[in-house]
Design brief:
Blueprint (H helix, E strand, L loop, with lengths): L5 E4 L12 H12 L4 E4 L1 H7 L8 E4 L3 H7 L3 E4 L5 E6 L2 E7 L12 E3 L5 E4 L5 H7 L7 E4 L4 E4 L3 H6 L2 E2 L5 H7 L2 H13 L2 E2 L1 H4 L2 H4 L8 H12 L4 H10 L2 H5 L1 H8 L5 H18 L6 H20 L6 H16 L7 H12 L10 H7 L4 H13 L5 H10 L4 H8 L20
Parallel strand pairs: 3-6, 11-12
Antiparallel strand pairs: 1-10, 2-3, 2-9, 4-5, 5-6, 7-8, 9-10
Helix pairs in contact: 7-10, 7-11, 13-15, 14-15, 15-16, 15-17, 16-17, 19-20
Length: 429
């Protein structure tokens, strides 16, 4: 640890107090007036230095959670692994964390580590400097003093920020073992910030990637959303595969991509990522289930082909495959039912695009999940899984009025030969 932190004025860093969240500043003001230390910290300071307006402003203080709660009526304490104070301003929440100290002593109420080094509970409190060295990356360990308009740097975060370097605090192997999710954060921040991983930060990731198997599946679901529901989804995806992390998250999908006989499955997933990026850049809504459906489609497709000979229909084959793939996947990532249900629907609707005649075709257009299924079908058609003429037909029919749609679905070229009706033998007179 350095005993000589560097202090920078906001002005010399090109920052303005006007860009600080007024609620966060009011919290630091009140804490300071009560005799505590309080700073804006982490991602908000990092993003301000990048010229971005932060989505969230977090506060770090030497006041313990119960002391924070005593000062703010609109405060709620949360967490067990990390005890935190959430201060509510309507729907707006400012997170306040107490300075963390070194993980030395273990007590059932404050700190507890797994035998593999993973921290299960960590409420050991410390000083500002100790807190700085307990954070993940140097660029996330900068403290903004809103009362004096300065930034305090104990770890060389400003220099790393200027050099576009992402550096893990402390000894990398130990820090990754404490919390393997830091490996995912490294890839996410590398893409988001357009930084390079420092050598020591980068080198252990491939070997330690299997540690993600020990992370609770519910926590990994939240992390997956952060990874892929972003404007850097494609870059994140490539980074995860490069370092063996994607296989730890989606083992079935990675095995299919590795052993694919063509680039088609990989291109489909990449295109789904790019589509997500485009929608987010255009401020359009994105649905996690669609992207996850694309990621898991190749295992489902392969298993469907395997199941088809023993089942009565394509829909049954897909449903059986979907059940098996999802059951295996939720053991790794706890995808909730509100996500898996529409995923299964999108998959199960795919065979219907091959039927282009009759009243059922018209009813299909009115299905609540039609649009998502249609978009998924277009993805498949783009890379040759479906005849482009089929995709064009479904695109065209949506431009027609009801009368024209009925006429098109009764066209002779889409109607198969009718089977002759069975007739009973005539009774003798």
């Amino acid at each position: 640890m350095s005993n000589n932190p560097k202090t920078y004025s906001l002005k010399e860093l090109g920052l303005s107090p006007k860009n600080l969240d007024r609620h966060a500043v009011s919290i630091t003001d009140k804490l300071v007036k009560a005799g505590f230390q309080a700073y804006l910290v982490g991602g908000c300071v990092r993003d301000l230095l990048l010229g971005l307006q932060p989505k969230d402003f977090d506060v770090s203080t030497n006041a313990e959670p119960e002391q924070v709660q005593a000062l703010f009526k609109n405060c709620r304490l949360i967490g067990r692994r990390f005890r935190l104070a959430h201060i509510h301003f309507g729907r707006h929440i400012i997170e306040v964390a107490t300075f963390r100290g070194p993980h030395v002593k273990q007590d059932k109420n404050t700190s507890h580590a797994h035998k593999d080094g993973r921290l299960l509970r960590d409420n050991v409190y410390g000083t500002l400097e100790e807190d700085a060295w307990r954070r993940d990356f140097t660029v996330n360990a900068l403290y903004l003093d809103a009362q004096n308009n300065t930034v305090i740097d104990h770890v060389g975060g400003i220099e790393d920020h200027q050099n576009k370097t992402l550096r893990l605090m402390g000894e990398p192997i130990q820090r990754y073992k404490e919390d393997p999710v830091r490996m995912l954060r490294a890839i996410r921040f590398k893409a988001k910030l357009d930084f390079q991983l420092e050598h020591g930060t980068e080198s252990p990731i491939k070997d330690l990637a299997p540690l993600l198997k020990d992370i609770p599946s519910a926590r990994l679901y939240d992390e997956v959303l952060k990874l892929f529901l972003s404007t850097q989804a494609t870059q994140v995806f490539e980074g995860l595969r490069q370092y063996g992390l994607f296989e730890a998250l989606f083992p079935q999908s990675e095995q299919c991509l590795k052993h694919a006989t063509s680039d088609q499955p990989l291109l489909l997933v990449r295109q789904a990522m790019e589509n997500t990026e485009t929608r987010l850049k255009d401020n359009r809504h994105v649905t996690p289930y669609f992207l996850l459906a694309a990621i898991l489609w190749e295992p489902v497709r392969r298993l469907t082909e395997k199941n088809r000979p023993s089942l009565n229909s394509d829909v049954q084959a897909i449903n059986a495959a979907a059940g098996e793939v999802i059951a295996h996947q939720i053991g790794r990532i706890a995808i909730p039912r509100r996500i898996t249900t529409p995923m299964r629907e999108v998959w199960a609707l795919q065979p219907k695009f091959h039927k282009r005649s009759g009243i059922r075709c018209l009813r299909f257009l009115e299905h609540p999940r039609f649009r998502a299924a249609y978009d998924f079908m277009l993805l498949r058609a783009q890379y040759g899984e479906i005849d482009s003429k089929v995709a064009d037909w479904w695109t065209h029919i949506q431009t027609l009025d009801a009368g024209e749609q009925k006429k098109l679905t009764h066209a002779k070229q889409f109607q198969g030969k009718r089977k002759p009706k069975k007739t009973s033998p005539t009774k003798p007179a």
